[in-house]
Amino acid sequence: MIITQTPYRVSFAGGGTDLPAFYEEEFGAVLSVAINHHMYITVSPRFEPTTRVAYSRVEEATRIDDIEHTIAREALRMTDLGKHLEITTVGDVPAGTGMGSSSSLAVGLLNALYAYKGQVTSPSALAEKACEIEIDILGKPIGRQDQYAAAFGGVNYIRFNPGHTVDVEPVPTAANFLAQLEDHILLLYTAQRRDADVILKKQSEGSRDKASVLRDMRDLAGALRTTMGGEGDLEDFGRILHEGWELKRSLGFGISNAGVDEWYQAARAAGAMGGKLLGAGGGGFLLVMAPPERHEAIRDALNRPHEIPFSIDRRGSRVIYISDRYSF
């Protein structure tokens, strides 16, 4: 048996400039962090001559082509692994909440399958292969940031180039600043689930008309990288975070809605420095940055929503267990 652990991600700025509709014309960039919430994948041999895939439902197929879980099917094809396998997926946070869960699944599953074959795969190769499955093969209208954040982990400035190459640049940041940043951030669940593909498809189609706004969003990712450098500046970070959200919601495309706007305004009135919806928008988790002494007031203002802790995972997708006996 092989078990992998792959982090989810939080993007602070630049989200949307990782879509081909933008970066094919000029480079895009995001500032993102991997967080201590994960996707766990197990791959193990199976006695029966079938493949069993367990996620929110359970499938058992005699042919790879018959597997309905699209990422599992294409990952098995890519790694040339067939029958006699048992695959399970368990996530700390549900899909559709803005933390890049599907890409974490793709990266983690590929990592597990290659490890099952006895192969060590680099973070860049895992990210590239996950992008190939999600974007090129399955045709999802998504960007490329989630796969790289999941594969590399840590705090990164990720640049997307017109030739479809991606540069991952770790951000040199003082440990004290990161600890303070973790203490300042709340992750609050809006209780709204959404189909990110629908929002991202609209954004891709409208990227040309919104190029100037997207360019400003990309540049804010660079500004955040500078702000986080050295000792860091929390007030400047909060200001840029707020500016980035105002730009992103101005795009339209269903990124925000009246309920989310009301939450954000209430959080700001209660002392938040800045914030944003995670992922494509439309629902999921609202990230709020505020001094710790204002957290209780913000929770009360938002009627104490479901909350998960925020901390940064310095590592990307990794194999955390290999049994003594397993079969190729």
Instruction: Decide which structural class fits the backbone.
Output: alpha+beta
The outline comes out as globular
The residue fraction in helices comes out at 25-40%
Distance between the termini: 11 Å
Average pLDDT score: 92
Strand percent estimate:
15-25%
Radius of gyration: 20 Å
Largest sheet: 8 strands, mixed
Number of strands: 12
List the helices and strands and how they pair.
Layout: E1 2-13, H1 20-23, E2 28-45, E3 51-54, E4 58-61, H2 70-79, E5 85-91, H3 101-116, H4 123-137, H5 145-152, E6 155-160, E7 166-170, H6 175-184, E8 185-189, H7 196-205, H8 211-228, H9 234-250, H10 258-269, E9 274-277, E10 285-289, H11 295-301, E11 307-308, E12 318-322
Helix pairs in contact: 2-3, 2-4, 3-4, 3-5, 4-5, 8-9, 10-11
Write up this protein.
By secondary structure, the chain is of the alpha+beta class. Helix content is 39%, strand content 23%. It has eleven helices and twelve strands. The protein has helices at residues 20-23, 70-79, 101-116, 123-137, 145-152, 175-184, 196-205, 211-228, 234-250, 258-269, 295-301, and strands spanning 2-13, 28-45, 51-54, 58-61, 85-91, 155-160, 166-170, 185-189, 274-277, 285-289, 307-308, 318-322. The strands form two sheets. Strands 1, 2, 3, 4, 5, 6, 7 and 12 form an eight-stranded mixed beta sheet that branches. Strand 9 (274-277) and strand 10 form a beta hairpin. Helix 2 crosses helix 4 (123-137) and helix 4 (123-137) packs antiparallel against helix 5 (145-152). The longest helix is centred in the C-terminal third of the chain and has 18 residues, at 211-228. The termini are close together.
